[in-house]
Amino acid sequence: MEERLIRVGITQGDMNGVGYEVILKTFTEEMMTDICTPVIYGSLKALQYYRDTLTDITEPVIPNVIARAEEAEEGRVNLINCVAADCPIAPGESTAEGGMASFASLEAAVADLKRGVIDTLVTAPINKHNIQHDGFHFPGHTEYLEACFGENGV
Hints:
- It comes from Tannerella sp. oral taxon BU063 isolate Cell 8/11.
- Keywords: Metal-binding, NAD, Oxidoreductase.
- It is globular, with a radius of gyration of 15 Å.
- It has one domain: Isopropylmalate Dehydrogenase (3-Layer(aba) Sandwich).
- The protein contains five helices and five strands, in the order βααβαββαβα.
- It has a five-stranded parallel sheet with strand order 3-4-2-1-5.
- The protein is α/β, with parallel strands linked by helices.
- Helix content is 33%, strand content 14%.
- It has helices at residues 19-26, 32-35, 44-53, 96-115, 141-149, and strands spanning 7-11, 37-42, 64-66, 78-81, 120-123.
- The longest helix has 20 residues, at 96-115.
């Protein structure tokens, strides 16, 4: 069996919140891709927006855009673009589109975790109000994950 770094799925959270700032600042540290293979589930457009807008990021993160987690490259920040390209970015605002985008990210990452193509999951903060819709009736994403994996799986 081939040895590989742990593959970490990372959800974008609410794209109008702090998620991308935290993600981008984390992966400006080169050592992070030495210890894991990150797979961000989110929006290429949002990642590029925050990368270009945040003034305190000294090393820009250039993602390796992939269609499936199995394509993730070690030593790179990988991104699965699972959010509609026309989803508006409105930093600091609570929008229905932002909620749907955070759910799309979470749903895609959970599906890959269930399939075993990522090893663990890190979730960026969601907006517990704008994520609510027909497919999501939970107080937060922890309860959603419990419903997906059982109480002991979280």
